[in-house]
Structures are given as C-alpha cells and as structure tokens.
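Quick one:
INPUT:
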C-alpha cells in the first residue's frame, strides 16, 4: 500500500499537475491540486502557460541527475505523441544549432547518449554564423526544402513538442478523470495549507518561485529568470530550429511550431529581472534573430512582416543547485503528522523535466529512509 493516501499538491503549473497525475497512477486515493493560477490564466508569475515546450534536454554534460530526469520525461512525451493525440503532443522535425564552442569541460554533444541515431550536422548544411549542430532519431524528410529555408536536404530530428494551452488542459482533464481535483486558492505558508486540508497525510510543494515567499520555506536560492517570447501566425512552418545561447548573450533563438498554425519565437534569459512589462526592444531583437536564422518565417519579406499574435513575459523559477527534491515531516497545529515533499526549481526546463522529476518524487515518497534525491 502506498504511504500516501490523501495528497494535496500546491502549485497548478506543469510540475504540480504532472506530480498529481503520477501519484494518482501509483496508489494515491485522492489528490487535490491547489493553485493561485490555473491553466487558462495569463500571469507572468505562472510561467508554464508561456513555455515553448520543445522536449529537448537542457542538462549539461556533467549533470547526470538532470539527464536522468530528462530521459524519463522524453519517453513519456513520446508515448503521448504516439498514443494520445488529444494531448497536444506531437513529433516535429527539427535541428539543434550551436553558435559557440563548448565551454571548458562541457560537451554539448552528450545527447549522443540520450537519443538514438545521433548524428552531427555537416558544415555544408549549416546557416551562416553557426559552427555546429546535430540531429537525432532520423526521419527522412519527404521533400527538398526551398533554398530560402536555409536548410539543405538532409535527415531531420523528430523532436517532441507540446502545444502548451492544449497540453495543460489535457493534464487537467487527465487529473479529473483519475479522480483528482483542481482548486484555485493561494496560501502564504505550508502550515496554513496543512491546517486547512485536515484529511491530507501528504503535502507536495510545487510552487516554483512561490517557495521564495512562503513563510515557512523562504528558499532564497531561488531566482527569477525572465523570459519574453513572441507568438506569430506562420502555418507554413513545420519544423523547429533552436540556436543555443551564447555565454555573453541574453538571447537564445528558437522557432517552435505548435501544430495549429502558430509558432513560438524566443527568447530571453534574464536572471533576476522582474519587469512584468513587455520590452519593445526585446521583441524587435527576438523577431530579427528568428528571421536571421530562418527567413522563410515571413517568406523572405523581412522581420517587419511577422503576423504577431501576442508578446508574453514570464518568470521561470531558477534555483542554485537545481531542482529541489526533498522530503520532511511537519506537524499541524493539532499535532497531526504530515509528510511534506518538495518538487520545484525547474528553471527553463519545467516541461522537459516534468515527468522525470515527478517520478523522482514518487521514489522519494515510497522510500522510507530517503529524504533527498
């Protein structure tokens, strides 16, 4: 029998919803997800809703812990793409580019161990300003790409991507179909949540940046990573491009089609920037960078020809030391014991690590003598 029966999950982003589903599939009788923000809300502090959600790994070559979580996550997203089209998860041909050499001690091509049929791209297939790149999971593209797409004819990767609004709604529907509940409410402490949900034997903290402010957590190793993205209409774009961030640049360039005619263009990585307003100069730079990498976005009409649908800002929950996966025992004001576990601090890879970190948390709850992973 599972050591958790009645569970409350604080946080209704991708991490909280995925954690709740994982527990319901593994013995929990009742799981209630409680969030200040829920799918459908547009709030810069609710970072899940503005994610690009290309399921590639952000782990460094030395971060075996995150690599393991990402491996697990990629397998689950592939299952969803293969068996549950209503999830909004699909395969998308694409490539990964690099504009700089590896930092000392790093190997950006470590993914040779993560994906099958890995292959570096030949120099002749690279756009100007790109020094390297790779493909993985070979899929023969069925047509020669136009010259103005910047990519010559070669095998593409089949990358898994998620249409974020569709996928978050799918997670909610899955939660409810398994008997879970979703409630909108905010708390200023774990204690207040424990005291309100008297029947819960387990409380899971998936509040992301909220853990910086919870009175009885106050994790000041957390920091916001401001991201600004642009959603454009470009139904002719059918594959993803990603150019990795330069160590001295605040930008990374990515082009991620969502499968519904819209494309996510990004983006920025601004640590400790808390400006909630759209910055027009960043929007201009994002569009120019995307166009430079892939002029076919506007049919070679220039970066001023984009059909812009929205410009969005969000704050990802960065954390020194990475994701916090930890278990402890706390007590209600009436003396009842509650198991409290933490799963937060996913930074820019919340979707990419979601199923893996939730599985780790499951192991943590099942392990009587485990307190941290």
């Amino acid at each position: 029998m599972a050591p958790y029966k009645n569970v409350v999950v604080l946080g209704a982003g991708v991490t909280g919803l995925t954690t709740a589903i994982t527990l319901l599939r593994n013995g929990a009788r009742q799981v209630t997800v409680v969030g200040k923000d829920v799918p459908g809300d547009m709030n810069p502090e609710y970072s899940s809703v503005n994610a690009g959600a290309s399921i590639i790994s952000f782990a460094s070559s030395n971060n075996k812990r995150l690599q393991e979580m990402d491996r697990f996550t990629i397998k689950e997203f592939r299952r969803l793409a293969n068996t549950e089209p209503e999830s909004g998860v699909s395969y998308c041909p694409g490539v990964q580019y690099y504009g700089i050499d590896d930092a000392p001690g790093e190997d950006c091509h470590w993914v040779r161990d993560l994906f099958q049929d890995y292959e570096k791209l030949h120099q002749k297939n690279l756009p100007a300003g790109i020094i390297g790149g790779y493909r993985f999971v070979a899929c023969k593209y069925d047509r020669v790409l136009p010259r103005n797409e910047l990519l010559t004819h070669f095998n593409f990767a089949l990358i898994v991507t998620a249409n974020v609004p569709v996928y978050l709604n799918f997670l909610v529907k899955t939660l409810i179909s398994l008997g879970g509940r979703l409630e909108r409410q905010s708390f200023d402490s774990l204690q207040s949540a424990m005291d309100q949900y008297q029947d819960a034997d387990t409380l899971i903290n998936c509040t992301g940046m909220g853990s910086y402010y919870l009175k009885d957590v106050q994790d000041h190793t957390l920091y916001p990573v401001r991201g600004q993205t642009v959603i454009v209409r470009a139904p002719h774009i059918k594959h993803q491009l990603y150019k990795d961030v330069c160590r001295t640049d605040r930008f990374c360039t990515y082009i991620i089609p969502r499968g519904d005619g819209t494309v996510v263009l990004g983006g920025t990585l601004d640590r400790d920037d808390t400006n909630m307003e759209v910055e027009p100069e960043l929007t201009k730079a994002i569009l120019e960078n995307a166009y430079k990498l892939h002029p076919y976005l506007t049919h070679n009409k220039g970066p001023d020809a984009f059909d812009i649908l929205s410009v969005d800002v969000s704050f990802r929950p960065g954390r020194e030391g990475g994701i916090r996966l930890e278990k402890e025992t706390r007590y209600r004001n009436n003396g009842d014991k509650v198991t409290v576990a933490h799963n937060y601090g996913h930074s820019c890879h919340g979707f990419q690590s979601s199923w893996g970190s939730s599985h780790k948390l499951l192991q943590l709850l099942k392990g009587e003598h485990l307190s941290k992973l």
